[in-house]
Amino acid sequence: GGGKMATVRRLRRAWGLAAPCASWRGMASVIPKVTQVDNSSDFLGNIPHRKHPGIVHLKAVRLPPKLIESAGFLMAESSMRDIKERVKTFTNYLWSRKRPVEETELRKKAQYLQQRLQGRIAPSNELLSEPDQAKEKEMEKKVLNTLRKTVYHWVPLDYNEELSFLYMVARMDGVYAAVSRAFHEIEKRFPDFQPSTLLDFGSGTGAVSWAAHNSWGKTLKEYVNIDSSKAMLTLAETLMKGTSEDQNLCIPGVYFRQFLPVSPKVKFDLVVSAFSLNELPSYSQRVETIQTLWRKTDSFLVLVENGSKEGHQMLMEARDVVLKGRDKVIHDPREPHVFAPCPHHLPCPRLSPDRLLPCNFIQAYHPLPFNWNPSLKEERFSFLILQRGAGEANEWWPRITQPVLCRPRHVHVHLCCPDGTLQHACITAKKHGRDLYRCARSSHCGDRLPVLSLDGGPALEERTDFESKEQS
How much of the chain exceeds pLDDT 70, in percent? Predict the structure, then answer.
């Protein structure tokens, strides 16, 4: 029986017949005659498919040797106990941290609870007698107790010397990796970008400046690090001075400040906020900060957050603020454009009310060489890059949002498309041509697929509802 089945399979392959598979039903497929590889830059004539221009993923990131040396020196000097356990607890806390609950939302919840409880403790319309006043107070107490139990209690983090050191040990390498991946996207797709000034809001240990120096060290002349914590700024400066005796900074032109430059005329080629938006105590302050950062952006604004639902939603808030241009005074007439990761300016399909999924990506990196760290770790992050002007020059190619599944003679890709929809495509060489098939097979999550739709419509045939294995 097994021999007959093997013969049938070989005949199927020879005749080009695909074996029927129940799990394929309902999957989208690229329209065979409409979608094709976007070869407008003639990349197929010059480079192999595995290096197609949609590839923007980055191999495992390594921290600069001088930064590793500085961190190791500070670690050796430290007298902190139970560091391994504290790092684990702090990392988990930062990942699960939610945004502060807004006053209006709190009032709504309190009113709802009060109405529910009033069903049990009905107040009279007349002046309340003493027993009724006691009941009213009892109800208020119940409302407050229930709110305390059900509402997330956001507290600002006091980055003193100890907590700043813990942040360096727990998060500096992961922050460096995520920011490096975001910078790599600009480097790869916009090689002419040669920034001379950088502003880093919520700079923490200074990882952004190190990553920017690694990408554009030849042209960057000024790195302005802004952090409200004096202890954190001192730590970042110590790391930047390294272990050399002359006490000069490893990177010339780095400045540490507690406050943002006030004048809207002071602009920077590159403005970054990495893992900082959740340190702001309210939605209105996040909006105000994003507006300020956008005003100070001359070319690119790079925002990076946790790859959680909270992190993704904060980035989508920021995207709305900039694209809808709520600023009363227009300081720069150049239009904002989403450079990455979205291939459109439409509402994020991952924010649909029935299924909230974070849009996140993974970057591998070699962590700081402390004895509890493995040789390789992964940072799960969300990012958003906004660009001033020149958005028409960007190709609106779909973004791969989940790991690519390579199977015998077919490839499954999940895409966020220029028409604002999520698609699941099953690509084969027979249906879609060898070039598109080879490009898809060489791609990873986070890359863009260089496909062109000739009719200007969506590149894929049907919208599908697929199960996501991504963590929230």
Answer: 76
- Cα 174–Cα 176–Cα 180 angle in degrees, nearest 5: 120
DSSP secondary-structure letter at 277? G
Nearest-CA neighbor of 341 among 293, 378, 390, 394? 394
Residue 467: C-alpha distances to residues 27, 278, 355, 357, 471 (Å) = 12, 29, 10, 11, 12
* The two structure tokens encoding residue 338: 């989403």
pLDDT tens for 260-318 read 887 878 999 999 999 999 999 999 999 999 999 999 999 999 999 999 999 999 999 99
Omega prior to 403 cis, within 30 of 0? no
What is the C-alpha separation between 121 and 133, in angstroms, rounded?
A: 11
Structure tokens at 149: 């139990």
333-377 residue pLDDT tens: 889 999 999 999 999 999 987 778 899 999 999 999 999 999 999
Q: Which helix (H) or strand (E) holds 418?
A: none
Rounded to 10°, the helix 161-189/83-96 angle is 60
Report which secondary-structure segment, H or E, holds 22: none
Q: Residue 90: count other Cβ atoms within 10 Å of its Cβ.
A: 17
- Give phi and psi for 320, each to the nearest 5: -60, -45
The answer for 298, left when phi > 0, alpha when psi is -120 to 50, beta otherwise, is: alpha
Q: What are the phi and psi torsion angles at 347 (to 5°)?
A: -55, 145
Tokens read off for 98: 């939610």
Closest by CA to 268, choosing from 226, 303, 224, is 224
